[in-house]
Specification:
The complex is a heterodimer of chains A (127) and B (363).
Chain A (H helix, E strand, L loop, with lengths): L9 E2 L4 E6 L2 E6 L1 H7 L2 E5 L6 E2 L4 E7 L3 E5 L4 E6 L2 H4 L3 H4 L8 E5 L11 H8 L1
Antiparallel strand pairs in A: 1-2, 2-3, 3-9, 4-6, 5-8, 6-7, 8-9
Chain B lengths: L8 H6 L3 E5 L2 E6 L3 H10 L2 E4 L6 E4 L3 H8 L12 E7 L5 E9 L8 E3 L6 H14 L5 E4 L4 E7 L3 H6 L14 E6 L2 E6 L8 E7 L3 H7 L3 E3 L1 H10 L36 H10 L3 E8 L10 E3 L5 E10 L6 E8 L8 E6 L2 E8 L7
Parallel strand pairs in B: 3-13
Antiparallel strand pairs in B: 1-2, 3-9, 4-7, 4-8, 5-6, 6-7, 9-12, 10-11, 11-12, 14-17, 14-19, 15-16, 15-18, 16-17, 18-19
Helix pairs in contact in B: 2-7
Classes of the chains: A alpha+beta (127), B alpha+beta (363).
Chain lengths: 127, 363
């Protein structure tokens, strides 16, 4: 089975993805991760304004069969969370890189992005 | 210890199944998605490979006497072709297993068949053999777990689907019956039993012919994930989780299946259970649903609204049919009245919950 690994994103080996736009990043979980979890039924996210340090577990994604912690890929301040997931957690399965995004962070330190995996490196992890 | 594989392991892998270890067997947990498989069974039909379940056949002049003395229900109620749900208890009334006991149709190879839970087949066959020797009874006990495959076909469309593939007249069969005949040209026993709350069948056939039967049933393949959400919506017990002689020692009254205990029969555990019946239980398995958002899971603590410990969740999930978080938990009987407000502690956070009657889903 092959999974979608978009070229314009960076990844964590814990299966989060990061999309950078200037000083902010959007964070979600990968196509591989949503497939492993199966039907997502509940997503718990931090409040806007909270600050996260790189590596913090900032929330959980729960499927029918499993609970998975999600980790902050970089340090920063939460500037937006995906409120649509409250009523439609299945968006994480349907569109993990689009409508199923989890939150936006204002970057504390842009250089932290360098530590993330490239699409090729991430593909190696999941194959 | 290496995992046992069902006869269809390669077919499931080919179909893209995810696998899990269950009772020492590597079984498909999910094919497409638990949600779609669950919906298929509630709305159309689905098929489950449950070949990990045990099959023990008891035959001979004393087969009835032995089985009567080892299971809680009255086996003498059963005529050939009939079945019932029963519990297997030890001397102190604690459940070792729950099972359906089939009185096999005339001409079948054996007198009684029962279906121990996954991984319990050897232990149960030994229990029957040891007691037969102890009580000097004339029986043959045959563990056929790896001779029979077992397929569950469940859902409102199951009768029509199976009717196309069998020479058995399914319209003659009520619930909890068993008949022999052919399915897809293969010798099979067909029982009107299941674990989903839907109409349907459990089909026993020779291990090496399972693929023929499986392929002939034209409906969604379903894994143990959907099997679990379907049974939990009905409040059906899962051995090893909702009761377990080591981890969760419970008697049938605590587990809410006192209806399978017939105190007018003599069986191992009877005297202890008569005492429980007279005195009542201190704790009982109860249904819960969460009012706050969250998913209750096995092991989560249940407390009063003030935070006093009451018990813990034995099974929980997000109900795919209802869209509600549901669970089972043993709690003191003072708190089991439907509608009682409680808390379930989810990752340190007390979430509002209330007790409710099971099944969670009307069927």
């Amino acid at each position: 089975m092959s999974f979608d690994v978009p070229e314009d994103l960076r990844y964590l080996d814990s299966h989060e993805w990061v999309r950078q736009a200037d000083e902010t990043v959007t964070v979600g979980i990968s196509d591989f991760a949503q497939d492993e979890l199966g039907d997502v039924v509940f997503v718990e996210l931090p409040d806007e304004g909270e600050t996260l340090a790189v590596g913090d577990d900032f929330g959980v994604v729960e499927s029918i069969k499993a609970v998975s912690d999600i980790y902050a890929p970089v340090s920063g301040t939460v500037t937006a969370v995906n409120d649509d997931l409250r009523d439609r957690p299945e968006l994480v399965n349907e569109d993990p890189y689009g409508d199923g995004w989890l939150l936006e962070l204002e970057l504390a330190d842009v250089s932290e992005l360098d530590a993330l995996l490239s699409p090729d490196e991430y593909r190696d992890q999941i194959e | 210890m290496s995992l046992r594989s069902p006869p269809l392991a390669d077919v499931h892998a080919e179909a893209g199944a995810h696998f899990t270890d269950f009772g020492g067997w590597e079984m498909p947990v999910e094919f497409d998605s638990i949600r779609t498989e669950h919906a298929a069974v509630r709305e159309q039909a689905g098929k489950f490979d449950v070949s990990h379940m045990g099959e023990v056949v008891v035959s001979g002049p004393d087969a009835t006497r032995l089985t009567q003395r080892l299971a809680t229900n009255d086996v003498t109620d059963l005529d050939p072709g009939e079945a019932h749900y029963s519990a297997i208890t030890r001397e102190d009334g604690v459940m070792l297993d729950d099972t359906v006991i089939y009185c096999l149709p005339e001409g079948a190879d054996g007198d009684y068949l029962f279906i121990p839970n996954a991984g319990h087949d050897e232990q149960m066959a030994d229990r029957w053999r040891d007691h037969a020797a102890e009580w000097d009874l004339d029986v043959t006990v045959d563990n056929r777990t790896t001779e029979y495959g077992l397929i569950a076909l469940q859902g409102p469309d199951a009768p029509d689907l199976l009717a196309d593939e069998t020479d058995i007249d399914l319209r003659d069969m009520g619930r909890f019956e068993i008949a022999d005949g052919e399915v897809a040209g293969v010798d099979a026993l067909v029982a009107t039993t299941g674990y989903t709350g839907e109409a349907g069948y459990e089909i026993l056939c020779p291990w090496d012919a399972v693929e023929t039967v499986w392929s002939a049933l034209d409906c969604a393949p379903c894994g143990l994930g959907a099997r679990d959400t379907l049974r939990l919506e009905m409040g059906f017990l899962l051995s090893g989780q909702d009761f377990d002689p080591e981890e969760e020692p419970r008697n049938p009254y605590e587990a809410g299946i006192g209806f399978v205990v017939d105190l007018d029969t003599e069986f191992v555990g009877r005297d202890a259970l008569e005492g429980v019946d007279v005195e009542g239980v201190d704790e009982k398995l109860v249904g819960l649903s969460l009012i706050d958002r969250g998913v209750p899971r096995q092991g989560y603590e249940v407390t009063t609204p003030d935070g006093d410990h009451l018990g813990s969740i034995t099974s929980g999930t997000m109900s795919p049919t209802l869209g509600d978080p549901i669970a089972l938990a043993y709690i003191p009987t003072d708190y089991t009245e439907p509608g009682t407000k409680l808390r379930v502690v989810v990752r340190g956070e007390p979430k509002k919950a209330r007790t409710r009657t099971t099944p969670f889903l009307d069927r």
